[in-house]
Amino acid sequence: MRAGPARARRCARTGAALAAREGNGLWGRTMVAWSRHDGAGVAQDADRRTNGLMVGRDVSWNSGARAGVALGYTRARVRAEARNEAQLDGYHALAYGGLVFGRWRLRGGVGQSWHVADTRREVAVAGSGRQTARYDGRTTQVFARLGYAMALGAAAIEPYAEAARAWQHVRGFDEDGDVALSGRPGRSASTETTLGVRADWRLETGAGDLSLTAEAGWIHGWGSLSPQARLAYAGGPAFEVSGVPAARDGFKLEARASLARTRTTHVEIGYAGRLGGGVRDHGLHVQVNHAF
What we know:
Layout: H1 5-22, E1 25-38, E2 46-60, E3 66-80, E4 85-101, E5 104-122, E6 130-148, E7 150-152, E8 155-170, E9 173-174, E10 181-183, E11 186-205, E12 208-223, E13 228-233, E14 239-242, E15 249-260, E16 265-276, E17 279-291
Antiparallel strand pairs: 1-2, 1-17, 2-3, 3-4, 4-5, 5-6, 6-8, 7-8, 8-11, 9-10, 10-13, 11-12, 12-15, 13-14, 15-16, 16-17
Domain Autotransporter: 19-292
Pfam families: Autotransporter
Protein name: Autotransporter outer membrane beta-barrel domain-containing protein
């Protein structure tokens, strides 16, 4: 279980995009996403599928200010090598806001997530079977993004600087099984900054208005970038294991296409990738956004 600044950025996009496109009032979003994490020999590779729902309410003022709150639920299924797998349930609360002053755009917010993890671990020892555990944790995140909007031909260009900070606490656990592990509680904190540029295009099609977005940025992180766990077998000494790390320096690439099926309903497909430090992370998502 690891939730860091990357989730804060996704939450920031949720609030900012829906607020910008769907006006005041209630909004909702459903999504499904697939991602692949390649640890490049540092840790086991992992495949993840996530389903989620988020609902929110936002308001705006004539001055260009906007604020909102949102609640969400996600369920992720993660499968690693050697038939190890986990189910992660997340409950999320988010407050976000934005200001427009001239060409400058300021967005930010704070989020709180509560997680419940059910893990299943296969042991390659005859008669040992599968070891299971259930534990929980929480993540607090803050984020801010400052951009400068300009036009370049048919595109709207926005260079930006972004910062996100996350604090996580995970409770200890005890597995059930013949070769059971126990894990100690842990705390971590990490920060990521991004310098990037975003480009948007809007096209009219027979099926509805089509919005295209491309984004690229350089990411620098510090703090607890590699998830660590301190484990022990019954009666044995403690040892540490590492999960798939986030790169200290890397690049992100994103592309999204959103089709306005009606004035209040948008269907979006997108790609998000991160490269750096020998770690590769690629993901696809499909989501439906609706304003009530």
